[in-house]
Amino acid sequence: MIAFMGNENRNSRWLTLLIAFMTLVQAGGLIRTMQRSEALSTQLTLSRPLEIAAGLVWLTVFGWLLWALIRNRPHAQFRAVIGVIGFIAYSVLRLFIFAQADYDRQRIPFLVLLLVITALLASGFRLLSVFLKHKEIITYDSKPRNRRQDPH
């Protein structure tokens, strides 16, 4: 179990770095959107206020997830993975609705595949951690619980 806990800490570090990177990317995208000229904004399909609002929402979500991971809050890793899956789903939906160029449309299958793989990996890791936790309780518990003792 010690080796698994070491991997869990390493995974937590990678997840924290990923969420920190996504927070910085969202902050940069928000700044870029706010500095964009009005002439360019009128040529894009997604309105500027809507893009700023979405950027603020995702910046807030990733900032909150990063804070929870750093503070080692309960279920922070699970919430962070759900946040990443939600962001990928949002990106696919946004591309599906607003993409007009062929090269944007060609990215949709890749993002859908990425969403499916991420969701499967997240659910697999979750099931594995529940299984290992249950196995540890059964293996290392010295007293049987809720079992009737034979009077013989």
Structurally, the number of domains stands at: 1
**Portion in helices:** over 70%
Largest sheet: none
Number of helices: 5
Low-confidence stretches: 1-7
Class of secondary structure makeup: mainly alpha
The separation of the N and C termini measures: 36 Å
Question: Could you tell me the radius of gyration in angstroms?
Answer: 22 Å
- Give the amount of beta strand, in percent: under 5%
Average of per-residue pLDDT values: 76
Descriptive keywords:
mainly alpha; 152 residues; flat
Q: Topology, please?
A:
Elements: H1 2-35, H2 38-43, H3 48-70, H4 76-98, H5 102-140
Task: Offer a quick outline of the entry.
This protein has 152 residues and is mainly alpha-helical. The protein has helices at 2-35, 38-43, 48-70, 76-98, 102-140.
Can you walk through the features of this model?
- The chain has one domain.
- The protein is built from five helices and no strands.
- It has helices spanning 2-35, 38-43, 48-70, 76-98, 102-140.
